[in-house]
Design brief:
This protein has about 140 residues and is of the alpha+beta class. The chain is about 25% helix and about 40% strand. The chain has a domain at about 1-30 and about 70-140: START domain (Alpha-D-Glucose-1,6-Bisphosphate, Chain A, domain 4, 2-Layer Sandwich).
């Protein structure tokens, strides 16, 4: 399964990167995350781990799998009951005076029917996440 959504925002790639590369900002735009609890020390980088807590109390561990400063952030879900493997990525590209954000989810579900369902409805969920991310970025101070 592979899902992709794209959005273009007015903020610079540097501003978008600073926001996305800070896991503590996730609750401001991802409705499935109420809190991010670091499990690693130091700044986020490849291998850095954390746990998210959903508004309903569900916990999900993740590890950063790719980190290309200013350009690419990917993380894998750990011990997920729905997926054998799931990787979520954000790719940033300059777009005029703003930034194009490409959000990709790649995974293998534990249940074939679930994979089909996620392929059908997942794109809408991804688009909603990007819409919330755009709104959160609009609330940031403007670039100097």
């Amino acid at each position: 399964m592979r899902l992709t959504a794209r959005a273009t925002v007015e903020q610079s790639p540097a501003a978008v990167w600073a926001f996305l590369a800070d896991p503590s900002t996730a609750p401001s735009w991802d409705a499935s995350i109420a809190e991010v609890i670091p499990r690693s020390t130091g700044a986020p980088a490849v291998g850095w781990e954390a746990e998210t807590l959903s508004p309903r109390g569900k916990r999900q561990r993740f590890r950063i799998s790719r980190y290309e400063d200013g350009r690419l952030l990917s993380f894998v879900l750990l011990d997920d009951p729905m997926f054998h493997h799931a990787e979520l990525s954000f790719l940033l590209e300059p777009a005029g005076a703003g930034t194009r954000i490409v959000h990709i989810i790649e995974g293998r579900t534990r249940n074939r029917a679930l994979g089909i369902l996620l392929t059908v409805i997942g794109g809408r969920a991804l688009a909603r996440d990007l819409s919330r991310l755009r709104a959160a970025l609009r609330r940031l101070p403007t670039d100097p």
